[in-house]
Design a protein that fits this description.
CATH class of the largest domain: Alpha Beta
Number of domains: 2
Number of strands: 12
Oligomer: single chain
Radius of gyration: 20 Å
Distance between the termini: 25 Å
Length: 349
């Protein structure tokens, strides 16, 4: 990727949107270095409007890094992880052996953090773009979107799903085969206006999930008897979902979406000790959704590493389906979101 390090950091701002995997990612590639963060399987996602992260990066006022999230100073593991990622960007563009300029990072999440709603995806996608623009010349020019592809592999090293948040609409992340991870990058499939779909985000709990995704993936790989089958069948699910998206076949896409989701959670449940992200309301929402589908309201469930249920449906029935699911005891609220836009980055004056 063309681009040079800047001698002094400048200020840059990026906005990236969260995404939800319709065909799931769960597990790291064995034997890969931890810093490469290589997935064991590919994934296919829908980028979401409204749910986003906004990050501004510029020179630090003092000669030390500073990280603020939602207006509050953050230290410890969260800040350290972010600055390790900025170090990756610095080294990627030739900064090995040179000292990275001290940076001030201001980030806002319009996604519930650490609750199974992919806040790390939008967060690290925005951090990657803003950091690249602040530290290098790689995104200078009239069409930075065309330069996102190589950065998707870099974003993935911060968070596995962040590679997909660089583009809007529907995006596929390929597993890749190379040991250095250079072919494990995302690619846009269909723009946000390809199909008039919505995702209903059905909230069934508040607060952070009990087990982090990285820990859960490791435990599943090491102990679940279903893990090998999960990895083996992923490619077929990806291809089936991409083809269904292309022909706008909701029934075929929905069947693949639910199959992928339930296989992933079955793998988790067979882990030792078992991993269960769902609660009772999660199950009741899925039951209610299936009843609604039998009554002609066609929607399909998926769920990440968290208790919330996401329902894929056509826009024309989203209101009716949302109203029906809201009546399930324990549902705390429902957000309606459509396909979101590409990420955006700009250099600030």
């Amino acid at each position: 990727m063309v681009g040079e390090l800047r001698q002094h950091a400048r200020s840059a701002r990026a906005v990236a949107h969260a995404n939800i995997a319709l065909v799931k990612y769960w597990g790291k590639r064995p034997g890969a270095g931890e810093d490469l963060n290589l997935p064991a399987v590919g994934s296919l996602s829908m980028t979401l409007d409204q749910l986003r992260s906004e990050t501004e990066i510029g020179p630090a006022d003092a000669d030390e890094d500073r990280f603020e999230l939602d207006g509050e100073l953050v230290t410890g593991a969260v800040a350290a992880r972010s600055f390790r990622h900025l170090d990756r960007i610095w080294r990627h563009f030739g900064g090995e052996g040179a000292t990275r300029p001290a940076l001030r990072v201001l980030s806002r999440n319009f996604v519930p953090t650490a609750a199974g709603l992919a806040s790390s995806a939008s967060g690290f996608a925005a951090l990657t773009l803003a950091g690249t623009a602040a530290l290098t010349t790689a995104l200078d020019g009239a069409s930075p979107r065309d330069r996102f592809a190589p950065l998707s592999a870099l974003a993935r090293r911060g968070s596995g799903s962040a590679a997909r948040s660089l583009w809007g609409g529907f995006v596929r992340l390929d597993r890749g085969e190379r040991d250095d991870g250079s072919d494990c990058r995302a690619r846009p499939l269909f723009a946000r206006d390809h199909w008039d779909l919505e995702l209903l985000v059905v909230h069934t709990a508040r607060g952070k999930k009990s087990i982090g995704s990285t820990e859960g993936m490791t435990r599943s790989r090491e102990t679940s008897p279903y893990y090998a089958a999960w990895v083996r069948e992923s490619k077929a699910d990806l291809d089936a979902a991409e083809q269904a998206l292309g022909r706008r076949d909701l029934t075929a896409l929905g069947a693949t979406v639910e199959h992928s989701c339930f296989k992933m959670h079955a793998c988790m449940l067979a882990t030792r000790p078992p991993i269960l992200y769902w609660n009772g309301t999660t199950l009741e929402v899925i039951r209610a959704l299936w009843d609604a589908r039998a009554d002609g309201l066609e929607g399909y469930a998926t769920s990440d590493a968290g208790p919330h249920v996401k329902v894929l449906c056509r826009s024309e029935i989203a209101a009716a389906l949302s109203e029906r699911l809201a009546r399930v005891t324990g549902v705390l609220g429902i957000d309606r979101v459509g396909p979101g836009p590409d990420a955006h980055v700009e250099v600030l004056p």
